[in-house]
Amino acid sequence: MMLEALQQIQDRGALEMAHRVRGYCSEIFRYGIPSGRVMSDPCSDLGSVMRKRARVKHRSKVPITELPRFFAALNADTGSRLSHLALRWTILTMVRTQETRHAQWSEFEGLGGPKPLWRIPAARMKMQLEHLVPLPPQAVELLRELKELNVYGKFGNERFGQYLFPVIGNNDDTISSSRMLVLLRRLGVGDKATVHGFRSVASTILNESGRFNADWIEMQLAHVPQGVRSVYNAALYLDPRRKMMKWWADYLDDAERASKAIVIEEVAPKKKPVEALGWFQSSW
To answer: Whole-model pTM above 0.90?
Structure first.
């Protein structure tokens, strides 16, 4: 019976989900054995007859030692300031690209106080769970610059003004899914590095520093613990994560200061023909 149920999930192509469901059900059965509710775990031997999971592909990333060169190239780039800020924001807050692209001003709390916070609603998160991002002072500074650049908000255009990174002409009214990646490719730092790879860079640096609990790091990356007994609390470890995010922001500042010793020629994006409103969008 269990095998038939798992095969139905596999037939949809959801191999990873099928293995997770087997694991969850196995925990339930094992929990019931000591109390006599069940006599055995029927899931324990099913792994060998299930289809293998797809191999996890790790995203390419900028080498840690290349961070100063990355910042030197970023500061030498003469392209869109909005793209620069979106990439900086994504790296600083350790979020996924999609979470940056659709960030809204209404999601921020306490920006004028000692504990500024970004509350990302569950509907926008990969795991469909609310995520809290404690913001270091450097993130608040980026928000100030973004607010100043947001001409839509200044002139009362609620449709576009609600977003941190609005762009007219895109289907979802925000910067495109590839915009930061195009910028990263243009900078030429790292072999086929991806924006998502910066999350791995942050995880590696924070873990290897020896200063922070691994659970704080995983929570900051919005990685949900596995198992039916796992409990996800968006506010968990919020105070220590706030200190950790300040340390991470300072680490990035140090890398950027080190970039001043690196000379890179200005890099300009290839210009497309100017269309309607092209002059207006050029600074975005």
So the answer is: no
